Structure formats: C-alpha cells, structure tokens
Amino acid sequence: MNVPKKRNPRLAAGRARAMGMPTRGTTNPNRLRRVDRWIAATPWVARAVSASGNPVVIDLGYGATPTTTVELAQRLGGLHPQLRVVGLEIDPERVAAGKAVADPPRLEFRRGGFELAGLAAGIRDFRGPTLVRALNVLRQYTEPEAWKAWDELCSRLAPDGLLVEGTCDEIGRRCCWVTLDRGGPRTLTLACLPSDLDKPSDLAERLPKTLIHRNVPGERIHALLTELDACWANAAPLATFGPRARWAHAARLFAERWPVLDRHPRWRLGELTVPWASVAPDL
Question: In which domain of life is the source organism classified (predicted)?
Fold first, then answer.
C-alpha cells in the first residue's frame, strides 16, 4: 500500500505565505530610470545578465502599478535575447494589474516576497534569479530587518547573480543603492540630477536602510558625504558650465582621495560608485 508522504509544515507555510510587507506603492513612470540605466551600462553588472544562459531578472515590490517592471524589461531587453523579467508583489490586486499588461514569457507577474515564492515554476534549469532589483522596498523595515532581508535575498541568487537594493525619491532625481552578490554587499552608488541638489549630502535621505541611520560622525558614510560636500564646494567655479560639469569635477576631486569605481562618463550623469568597504558600518 502506498503511504502518502507527510507534508513539511514549514515548506507548506512558505508556499502559502509571501515574506514581507506591501510597499507604499508609488510607481511614477521613469522613477527608476537611473538605476536601470546604470545596470545596463555597468559592465560587471550587465554581464551577470548577458552571460547567463537563462537570465531571470526580478523586480521585487514594484508597487501599485506595473509601470517600473515594464520599463525594466524594456531597458534590459538588449542584454540577452531570452531575458525574462518577473514582477513580484505581495498584494494580489497588484499582481492582477500586472498580469493585465504582461507579455509572457518575456514579462510576467507573480505573488511573492523575499522568499521569491514559486519562482522556479515553469523556468527550465532554474538556479536562482540572475538579478533582483528591490527599490523602495526596505525603507519601512528596521535596520536589523533590512540586513536579514539582504541575507534572505542573496541566498536565493544564482551563483553569479546580483541584488540591487536601494531607495529613490518619487520622481527618481535622488537615488542611492547597494549592489550585492551571494557573498554580501560590493558597492554603493549615489545617483542624482545635480541641478536638484544644494550639496551632495542631500542624498543622505535616500541612503539604503542599512546606512541611513549611520550618517553620523564616526561612521564611514558620514565621512564620505562630508568629503564629497567639500569637493562640491571646491568645484563651485565649474558651476558656470552647469551642475553636471560641477558634479563631474567634484567626483574627480573626490576620486583623488577616496576609492572610486567609475569614471567621467558616469560622473557626467550624476553618478558615483564606491566599494562597499568604503562605507560599511561598524557592526
């Protein structure tokens, strides 16, 4: 007689319950254009998608409408002809709204959270997502919860996969994000419309949850923003050529004193990327 296998209660619960809380839901068009543009144009990040045999990119917590997920699929589509983008949300109504505009298998929407529930279903030889973008998801969590979410998400990445996690303002003019792999955080990127800032440290309000409360004297992120403000002040004569020129010059001055991973073409776009070790908090 065949005896039915006992269900693992923990596994069953994991399938039924998405991990996390619904986001506030702000999804203005082009809100995440800066991070999408950076992903597509940064070689070591884009390679995670383009070099994969079966790339799956996750937009985690896309909000009230699927706009930013659709834009992500459009902006990364040129990296791989078989790219699949999956939008994950906890709220079933938001998932239904996504499915109404989906174009499977290139673009699809499912219910899920940090556990990436049911993602492997229907994806051949799935070893984990190639890239997870989680913007404006962790701001409502505590710092310990944010660290835990990083661990949860990174543990589910493909072997060479990446997590891009951070925050931005409602129209995407001020953004900060951390890029992580299975081993943990690798880089911090600051991105902005330079004309929208009085000084670079205005970006502090958009730091990821793991850093936002660390912007105090004695912490590395505070030292970085203080130094960047000083470079911005020294670059004031370049303001006559516009805010972008001033930001690029400030970034060049900053790169003479701090490790910086990008160069002038990215600086002209209002970006600056540094190794995580430069800003890692003392825990």
Answer: Bacteria
